[in-house]
What does this fold into?
Amino acid sequence: MKYLANVTTLQYVSDKCKGCEKCIEVCPHDVFFMRDKRAAIKDKDLCMECGACARNCDYGAITVKSGVGCASAIINGMITGGEPTCGCSETSSGSGCCG
Amino acid sequence: MQKIKLFTLTKEHKGTSDFCCANQSVTMTESACCTSSVKENPQWVTGTIATSVDTIMKISTDLTRCDYWGMIKSRVSGFRMHYTVPPGLYAVGEPKKDSDIFVTANYKISFDVLRRELKDLNAWILVLDTKGINVWCAAGKGTFGTDELVNRITKTKLVTFVNHRRIILPQLAAVGVSAGEVKKKTSFLVYFGPVRAADIFDYICAGYKKTREMSTIRFSMFDRLVLTPMEINPIMKRFPWFAVAILIIFGLQPAGILFKQAWSGGLPFLLFGLVSIIAGALLTPVLLPIVPFRSFAVKGWIVGILSLIAVMPFLGVSLKNSILLLAAVWLFFPALSSYIALQFTGSSTFTGMSGVKKELKIGMPIYIGTAGLSLILLILFKVKEWGGI
It folds into this structure.
């Protein structure tokens, strides 16, 4: 299953890659693969912007704007004017997220 | 990043009818299930290991009926908000200095799903304080993060229990944990293990190597189905408000609110509402890959309108005479299903924030417009109705 095309904020600079393969180890959607001793992106649209790759790239080759991918949280953010936050830790009647 | 699933409930839920813990309070911080007092050890503790540093609890790798009942309750209600285990170090089997260390969240289900997979192994379990939230969501929030891991490694004096420096984390924890920083601060080398605890044994046997299967998150029909109760629940809590509004609109007459009119006119609308909720919160998630288009809003609208077509011959009889009411129904209810389906992005394992923002940017004006227009149509219907008296 793939989500909307051409929306991900994932950016990757292959010049900075040292080939440690950490991004491949942590990506839950198999976005990266190795080509000529460097990581390469297989299919950007598979990315769900979880941010695991960027957090674990020690060479700063990957950036992605990660955040709450949940509609009710984003609506909350729109209403309060802040960043999207999920109310699930405070209330049991929040959205289905955070199972 | 509020996705679900580190774990899938792959085993049968046994004995669900034997509610051993049905009447217990859930305010205890330990497994509320089947323990008569907070002071007593929880039933998953099988003994203790006395060490020079601390007394470590030995835990069972067999889940009991109570554990499974806790899983089910957490899937359908707010019970999940208080379903925790105390953070710290635990022992499985007879762990030695060279035994593996597995890290998990202090959400009881995360803990249960891990220990269940460590059968016949000697291992350490390090439970982080994630405020009772599962691994992936906690990693997204930052509570299952580098700082908490470093802090917990120090607090438990982990180095005194082992002669190696490898700790195995669930892969999805990588959202919050930087392996590089942990190495720098604690000398422990983070191994991001498989996504699912069920693959741990194969992962160890393969020499701490993952197959692509093990490192990819899935979202099977069963995975999606178990999430639907928590989609339906919050909406059903708001349903009475919708019902009251509809009954007032239909019952309102120049002479006051007439119960008979409220019921005969409003009932089809209430049933359409229920159908739309089922379409958006149950059918769309379950049929997700089959329904065309990638947008959750569009998927929900399609399932919504198909459901409406299916029930119209039965529920639409009383609307036949009013174009205004029919227009309101066809406009409003598929849009409602669409909006509800869009909420499922919060539980899905493959949707990202940018995509959801895009859907909302386009969707919200349409939802608000549709709701407004439907209300105007209802008012026009009432005006016409009163004019005819």
